[in-house]
Protein: Molybdate ABC transporter periplasmic molybdate-binding protein
Organism: Serratia ficaria
Amino acid sequence: MTDILLYAAGSLRLAFAPLLAAFQAQSGAAVEAVFAPAGLLCRRIENGERPQLFASANLAHPQRLAALGMAQPVTVFARNRLCATVRNIPPLTERPLAETLCDPRWRLATSTPGADPSGDYAQQLFERIERREPGQGEALRLRALALVGGEHSAPIPSGRLAAEYLIDSGLADIFLGYASYAPALAAYPALAVRQFEPPLAVMADYGLCLLDVWAQRLADFILAEQGQEILRRNGFLPP
């Protein structure tokens, strides 16, 4: 029988595999984890589904549940940052990243705004570019293809990473996603992960909220030293 039901952002899947294994070995409690875009998970909870713990890739979704009286106050448990994964070819790796991004020759893909916080962070990047270079950010917003993370998005095949799959399949040349995937993407020499520098660096705060006190022990483990170390090893930044 499952002791704890966890809903967690899809970007936590790789890190939470060893984290949940360590928790289960220590506590003896079984955990069923459901991974999906945090915005879609939030909607499912609002519509009546009842996980005991929700780990989101932003603060807005768990804060909404808390405001509705469906969850306890939100705790930041990790941070991430937006990055660009590109084809590993000189035209995409040698020019300044913002200049490369704005070049209309390249197919630019993101996750789906509203449904997936990654897509929302991409929109924040476009807004920052627009403030710096009027017209360019708006052009990016119109050009970007929201290919994953939506309710009706085509699924990414099992065992594939979104950036790797979309670029390898010829659907995109650049994918805006999370820097926590960089260690896993390093296994693909056809790809390069590029980081944005301030003021274009967009940071992501990950929020945790309890919907049932029965999951308090799992929340405590995620926030404690062992859970935090596992998250750091998997590319996340401390809260």
Notes: Strands lie at 4-9, 31-36, 53-56, 75-87, 108-111, 145-148, 174-178, 191-195, 203-210. The chain has a mean pLDDT of 97. The longest helix spans residues 117-132. The radius of gyration is 18 Å.
